[in-house]
Specification:
Elements lengths: L1 H11 L14 E9 L2 E9 L6 H5 L18 H12 L7 E5 L12 H12 L4 E5 L7 H10 L4 E9 L3 H8 L5 H13 L3 E8 L6 H15 L5 E6 L7 H7 L8 H15 L3 E4 L17 H14 L13 H10 L11
Parallel strand pairs: 2-3, 3-4, 4-5, 5-6, 6-7, 7-8
Antiparallel strand pairs: 1-2
The structure holds iron/sulfur cluster and zinc ion (ZN).
The site of iron/sulfur cluster has 10 residues, from helix 2.
Amino acid sequence: MKELENWSRELKKNYTPYEQDSSKPVSCWNEKDVISGKIVDAFVIILKTRGCSWAHNSGCSMCGYFNDSLWRDSSNEEIINQINYAMEKYSDQKFVKIFTSGSFLDDEEINPELRFEIIGKISKKAKKISFESRPEYITSEKITSIKSKFQRNIFEVGMGLESSSDYIRDRAINKGFNFSDYKDAALLLKKSGWEVKTYVLVKPPFLTEKQAIDDCNQTIKKIKNLTDTVSLNPTNVQSNTIVEYLWKRGQYRPPWLWSIVEILKNAKKTLKDVRIKCDIVGGGGIRGAHNCRLCDKGFLQSINEFSLLQDLTLFDDLNCGCFDKWVDCLNFERFGFGSLVDM
Ligand code: SF4
Ligand SMILES: [Zn+2]
């Protein structure tokens, strides 16, 4: 749909990137994750590149990652400086995630020579290496060339499918690819022995809370045989996005944590041994997924622990008076226009 694409492009028209130090990554930190069912330390690096090519074209309705990019072409030297800076803080974690504000396999963002150099710096100490890419950049040539050079590593590629519905991806997200593109890329990765992580968006704009839950449930059913991990991404309100535009006008509320727990419970029954996790950016804040403030902390902690342990009983004791308000929201939102926002 051209309207959403044009709108997203229009919002970026006067965007001026803030001054950034291109020798340092956006961020790097240590966190827990899982390799072959075992909890391990993971090291995450977010590189500052030129940004996602799709964002340069128009971009997804909820995505403000371009705010962290250089928004101009970057040199190999700048990116290597960022990696070197991060590696000073690296302490031999077995799992390393190299994220950009776009696609690691997009040659415009990271050229092949640079890609090999980055992986080469990590591959000796890390066992598993994870990066993200849109499906159009995932080709058998790229997989084969990386595989043949780095044979001892496990590779995981994260794809932002967001929803299995082409209608929602087109009309609410402006994602710019179809379910079949995701499916072809996922099958190719699996055939090559690589792991697939699929990001599923919780509550794109223009959906009610109930529609958002139903969409996640359906999406998870449809991808259960195509992915090794599902990562739920609750929408948070990022700067210079369509979501922020709506939110500022009282037409969007980030998802309830009750909804996320509901989706995780359904998902675990559907997915069985396929891992499901949920990282909540800005959780508990007005721009992130939240409940009533009083119970947010307990919910966030249970969701975090569930992401590692996959134990549904972690949700058993969650309780709060705001439950009734959430149920009202599920029942009545469809009679209004847009989200019922916090008063
Ligand atoms: S969500 Fe992914 S594909 Fe969409 S604009 Fe952001 S980085 Fe690009
Ligand atoms: Zn509450």
